[in-house]
Write a structure and sequence with these properties.
Length: about 300
């Protein structure tokens, strides 16, 4: 039985499941998740398997048809949109041609250094999003693209709102939705070594919705420092931490770029084993400037 104690040095870390269920549909998975206390949805299992824990019921969505990226022309928000299934692997996310155009190459750049191809062939977009990890390159680029999430239960919500919510998610993510129109974008990051977690990362994107710039690996969850005018991202708007969320015009001026950098510096940063808060606070504005300038070319 699982004891909950910390493993001894050299002891194998074991993840135990009480019951394993392959859901027949997302609705079936939602009902199981709600009815069985302690149940969990499993994505690729890349991060879950690193923890020493016991899960009473694990629910697999592998038979639910959520492993494709589809182009649609009748999305109620974006019109032309890409519907990314929650079980799409990070490798498919990296290689999809439609997504590459819609993200201005930022999607591939963001996930290219995540561990290795073998890991990216297992890890899923849904697992990365629902984990809401502060270091998530996937969440960062999707936030900059203005992604929406589609759940069984909660319905459709912007990714930005989901990342700000601190409550445990007990709904089933089915799709991530992004505008399909070609975008100009840039992903920037500092890492201690090529495949390590980012010390700090930034994504700037100029899409059909306007400019959005996100800062992640603070090491908290990614936050916007630039929002589009269509979303009400006016100069007096702010993100959840009080840093002003500025607006950029189609061709950003030097003053606008400076305002974006200042907004990034006013975010809250913390210290962990990779870097201290002061370092992140100094580097973030530099990456914001680089990302905006590269995306604006």
């Amino acid at each position: 039985m699982f004891s909950g104690r910390e493993p001894a040095r050299g002891e194998m870390v074991v993840l135990r499941f009480g019951t394993y269920v392959r859901a027949k549909s997302p609705q079936d998975a939602y009902e199981l998740l709600r009815s069985k206390k302690g149940s969990r949805i499993v994505g690729g299992g890349g991060w879950m398997r690193l923890s020493r824990r016991s899960v009473g019921t694990v629910i697999d969505l592998g038979d639910c048809g959520l492993d494709a990226i589809n182009l649609t022309h009748d999305d109620p928000v974006f019109g032309d949109a890409l519907r990314i299934g929650a079980y799409v692997t990070l490798r498919s996310f990296e290689l999809d041609e439609h997504l590459d155009r819609a993200s201005g190459g930022a999607a591939a750049a963001a996930v290219h250094d995540i561990v290795g191809v073998q890991f990216r062939n297992l890890a899923t977009v849904g697992g990365s999003v629902c984990g809401r990890f502060g270091f998530s390159d996937v969440c960062l680029v999707l936030l900059a693209l203005g992604a929406h999430l589609e759940f069984v239960g909660a319905g459709r919500i912007p990714l930005e709102a989901f990342l700000m919510d601190k409550a445990t998610c007990r709904d089933v993510l089915t799709h991530v939705i992004v505008p399909a129109a070609p975008a100009q974008a840039s992903y920037q990051a500092v890492r201690r070594q090529a495949t390590d977690f980012p010390v700090i990362n930034v994504c700037a994107a100029h899409t059909c919705q306007g400019w959005r710039v996100a800062v992640g690996a603070r090491p908290g969850r990614p936050r916007l420092v630039v929002g589009s005018a269509q979303e009400g991202g006016a100069q007096d708007a702010s993100n959840s931490q009080g840093a002003p969320c500025v607006t950029l015009t189609d061709a950003p001026t030097a003053d606008e770029v400076e305002a974006a950098c200042a907004s990034a510096q006013r975010l809250t940063y913390s210290t962990n084993m990779l870097a201290d808060a002061a370092y992140r606070q100094e580097v973030a504005p530099v990456l914001v400037r680089r990302a905006i300038e590269e995306a604006a070319r």
